[in-house]
Every structure is written in structure tokens, then in C-alpha cells.
Amino acid sequence: MSFADNLAAIQQRIHAACARAGRGPQSVLLLAVSKTQPPEAISEAVNCGQLLFGENKIQEAKAKIPSCPGRARWHFIGHLQSNKARDAVELFEMLHGVDSLNLAREISKRCEQAAKSMSVLLEVNVAGESSKFGYPPERLLAELKELNSLPRLAIQGLMTVPPFAVDAEKSRPHFRQLGELKRQCEQTLGAPLPHLSMGMSGDFEIAIEEGATFVRIGTALFGPRRARVATLGDML
After folding, report:
1. Structurally, what CATH architecture does the domain formed by 3-235 represent?
2. Which candidate, 76, 64, 134, places its Cα nearest to that of 110?
3. How far apart are CA 109 and CA 208, in angstroms?
4. Is-above-0.90 flag for pTM?
């Protein structure tokens, strides 16, 4: 199937999930996960009307984005190391994986140097998996006000990656927990947080039913991931 066919199928499923949840389809933003996809694939996607893309490697994005259509918009969805914060601030309009106060401070510092602000989502390890990045919920709540005080960051919501499960329903409790945590954060800050970034190709419909506003979909849009040639930057 072509990208256009895959996009239409995903949009239909998004609309159906929103209808089940009593939500308008415009409340869910489709983030096309474009890691390992070449600029030609991004151009095809843009021609089909998909403008929002997610990358998870700074070096790959740095090499690829200048060759992609200028209408494309870019979010960083991977684990960000502090030493890559300057590049992230330059390349992306939103960072989905802010998972520590030190990283947030570094991003704010780099934004100050670049005379810009950055929208961020705070990544939460809702299942407490040792192999995953993300804030433990209790520590997030403890540090939230300090995070919110950083002058160049605009906290827009939360993000999570639940444990892998063949049965998408097994992700529902984790998505629901993130929604509940968002409500606690809103009470702490006294302000709404508009976004929940959760749900991928295998479970995005469940995520939408539980309140997702960003769904991160790669394989179901682009097909199987393409092999990526390692660069020196990957080892730095």
C-alpha cells in the first residue's frame, strides 16, 4: 500500500476511536514517526498532507531535516542527552522526552542563548520499567513547580511509552494512569496542560480512548523500518 492509502486508513481509525470516546477528531494530532525514513519519504508524506513528524536521533535529524520540505514540522520523541540540547533547540518545535530537571535546565539555557522558547512534554515511566527512561510519577510531582519556573520552557503535558504488549488492551491502565497524573499536575500548577503524547502503531486507538492528543505512528504509516547506516555521531 502507498503512504496515501496508509494515511487514509490511520485517519479512519483515529476518527472511529474519537467517536467511541465522544471526542472530535481534531483533538488528536498524528505524529508520523520518520526515523530511518529518507527525505524522499518525507516529501511523499508532505504531498499527502502529513506535516507533523517525529524523530528520535539528533544526528539523523540534523542530517535529514535540511533536505526535507520546508512545510514539514518536527518534534523530538527520543531520549535527549544534555550534550545534544543545543541541536534539539535548533531543529525542533517540541521536545516530547524531557525526563529530568538537569535536562530541562540545559534546554532552558540553550533556549536563552538562541533567544527562543521551547514547548516540552515531560516523559513519565508509568510502569517503573528499569529499561525505560522517564520520570517516576512521584519525582515528577515533587519537581514540577521548579520545572515550570524555568524561563524558556513551556510545559505542554506528559508523554509515556508503556511496556510492550501484543494485546493493546494491556496498555490501557498505563495510559489511564498518565491521564490521572496529568490532572494531578494541573492541580499543582493551577493551569491546564493540553497534551498527552501516548500510543503507537499497535495501541494508538486505546490511547485515544484514554485521552491522547498526540499519537506517534511509524510502521503503520511508512511500513517496516528501513535499515539505517550508523554514523560517527551515533557513537559520540
Report:
1. Alpha-Beta Barrel (3.20)
2. 76
3. 34
4. yes
